Amino acid sequence: MGMFARAGATVGALSLMASLALTGCGDDQKKAEFVDGAPAVGSSVAAETGTAPADPATSADPTLKVSPADGAKNRPVSTEISAKIPEGGKVTDLTLTAANGDKVEGRWRADGSSWVPNKPLKFGTRYTATVNAAGAGGETRQGTSTFTTMAKPKSMIASGLYLFDDKTYGVGMPVVTEFHPGIPEKDRAAVQKRMFVRTDPPQPGAWHWVSNGTQAYYRAPEYWKPGTTISVRIALAGIPLSNGKYGNVDRSATAKIGRAFEMKVDNATKQMSVFQDGQLLRKIPVSLGKKSTPSSSGTMVVMEKKESTVFDTRDDPDPANRYVTEIDFAQRLTWGGEYIHAAPWSEHVQGRQNVSHGCVNVSMAQAKWLFSQTRVGDPITIKGTERKLVQGNGWTAWSLSWSEFVKGSALPVPEGGAGPALA
């Protein structure tokens, strides 16, 4: 689960020390200005540009200026390129080339504020950015900048992405990123601007930070549409943070969302209702956590599945809760140890009485069937218990309403959610 171990399971343009730096930049390092506020054209849609000198009538116009500034040194490998052009002009083409001649591919931000390389730049390397623009009178203008990236830093954070290429997940699967140590609050907006999500079909979304900045979740206002493709790039490599650390690597994945499968558990009836594509498949008697160890009420998702495992709670401070038990068909719901699993020892009270240590107990036969149906990311909602689900105890992105969820974003979220950050 994820790209590094945790408890038995496995900044943006604003953060850069270039034109969009967290710590500020040169005097002339500002965002591009475009006609009527329209975004800049991507480098793959370049217009023809000539090399004729500017019209004398416009020769006094300010020179097109590229950021990072020419001669800049020790730029982060997360550097983005931007330009300031004379009023009324527009960018027609941008290229970024390494000293060895290799061309860097990239995309414009959706708002046209900067151009983002598709991959982190290389450490200790000289790059030349060339920007062509058309002036208000149709004349061609060009600006260039040669800058050098910094050496590889010694102090980096660790990070993870709980999404994997070519995997199919449930409709409740949030995009989950993890950071160790956590991202300082003052840096989260900058980091969030470097976390890119695109969905097909398009669905708006937002990020939400939890657990002191050690995790961030991305979700849409509603569950993902079945069949959605989610493409993610967590462009963390080289991002400078205020604590002196830097992002370690870029992580990316493209995954699919499968059919709509959902489980709903009501403590009042002690029944689980299982739905697929909106149709009730079956009802399953359950036994939830007893009063001293109640199950959590809220919406969770299946985080991992183990056909067989061992629950070992010998380190629990309460002797009454210490045990070592072999478990079949276990499906993790929280980091704290709540699962759906087979509990043949409680079959006689399932549907009538809560006797578990917080898990959702079902019969051996029902557990086997359910295990065969579910995917990681399938949502389960439990209601009516004595304990409310704690944010961050599992992938809790759906335990909040949309209006509450967007409050956890480090950046403003448009009503209804944000679209993709890159054009």
Automatic annotation (TrEMBL):
The keyword Glycoprotein does not apply. Residues 46-76 are annotated as: Disordered. Residues 1-23 form the signal peptide. Residues 49-63 have a biased composition (Low complexity). It holds the Pfam family Big_10. It comes from Micromonospora haikouensis. Residues 261-383 form the L,D-TPase catalytic domain. Pathway: Cell wall biogenesis; peptidoglycan biosynthesis. Keywords: Acyltransferase, Cell shape, Cell wall biogenesis/degradation, Peptidoglycan synthesis, Signal, Transferase. This is Erfk/ybis/ycfs/ynhg family protein. GO terms for biological process: cell wall organization; peptidoglycan-protein cross-linking; regulation of cell shape. One of its GO terms (molecular function) is peptidoglycan L,D-transpeptidase activity. The keyword Calcium does not apply. GO terms for cellular component: extracellular region. The active site is at 341 (proton donor/acceptor), 359 (nucleophile).
